[in-house]
Amino acid sequence: MKVLTIAIPVYNTENYIKRCLDSIIIDEIINDIEIILVNDGSKDNSIDILNSYKNKYKESIIVIDKENGGHGSTINAALEKATGKYFRVLDSDDWFNSQDFETFVKLLKKEDVDLVITNYRKEHVYNNLSEKICWKKLEENKIYEFDKINLDLLEKEYFVMANSTYKTEILKKSNLKLLEKTFYVDMQYNIMPIKNLKTFKFIKLDIYRYYIGRPEQSMNLDNFVKNRTSHEKVMKFLVEYYNENYEKLSKNKEEYIRIILYYMLTTHYYIYCVYAKKDKKLIYKEIKAFDKYLKEKNLKLYNMMYEIGQIRYNRKTKFLFLNISPQIFSKIISKYGSIVKRKGV
User: Fold this and answer.
1) Which of 119, 114, 108 is nearest to 205 (CA)?
2) Structure pTM?
């Protein structure tokens, strides 16, 4: 059995895929890993590059060539084929620190925890900044039981694709099936395996390089607004998932998932209340409808969002502040905010 399956979604990344693959194809460990390259209907020469690598490393590389179905569909396809003991995702415009990755695979051979987490970096294209994201309070190589851990050790951070290597069986037990033709499905990946997670370990290696700043990336602020229906689709899926599972979860798992939902919901409201610059009438209708939905579906999550001033004051005015720039909004709140008392429903 291979120790690690690496799923690599590929869509029109002919300019990046070689850097990605060259960072993980290392002679000392190539026989220990399984690389599943999923071409998601690319219109450039990506598939030719993938096949050329497959021909060189037939024992370690699998190529899946499929119609376009979005990021989630590629991970679904890779997970279905995965045979490695562990599983992780590497986007084709990102790459690994080869030296630390080699060390990681060798250490992984001896592991049996459900999840191994590491550090990673965000590589910002627009200002050449390399931002290291670290776990500062966790002890290296200590086996943690998730249900017993003090969540303060995570410092309100959570396990994401870039720092997580799950046992493949944990992902499959979680019935992980990501939404297709939808952006932001990584949030499903961050939440759904938690209910089956028992143990995890932190290894202090700096592996993933997350390439940030390409205009077409979904995390671009303009694209957040453009793709807001996808964000809402994922958000509603996870609200429903929380509703179905929170009574079955341990105290730690329920709180941890709620922390992630807090960040997601904050982002969702900000897409409408801060980032959106156009189509104000449509934006107004959409966020009012979502706010009503959240109140009806889960009052606990709804009330939790009163902690955010931008959301609290917009609710008080039935989202009329949407028509005011964030700068003017801040001036109004700083001067008159005290007259609007903070309260739930």
Assistant:
1) 119
2) 0.91
Last residue of a domain, one of 178, 212, 246: 212
Domain span at residue 285? 221-339
Q: CA-to-CA distance for 113 and 130, rounded, in angstroms? A: 30
> Are residues 274 and 151 located together in one domain of the fold?
no
d(CA 231, CA 239): 12
CATH number for position 63:
3.90.550.10
What is the rounded CA–CA span in Å between residue 221 and residue 234?
Answer: 17
- pLDDT value at 341 more than 50: no
Q: How many domains does the chain have?
A: 2
pLDDT tens, position by position, 70-91: 999 999 999 999 999 999 999 9
Q: Which of residues 194, 212, 230 is at a domain's end?
A: 212
3-state helix, strand, coil in the chain (%, to 5): 50, 20, 30
Q: Which amino acid is at 309?
A: G
In a domain, 146, yes or no: yes
Q: By the 8 A CB rule, do 40 and 137 touch?
A: no
Residue 344's pLDDT is what? 36
Contact (Cβ atoms closer than 8 angstroms) between residue 42 and residue 11: yes
Residue 235 pLDDT > 60: yes
- Contact yes or no for 38/109 (Cβ under 8 A): no
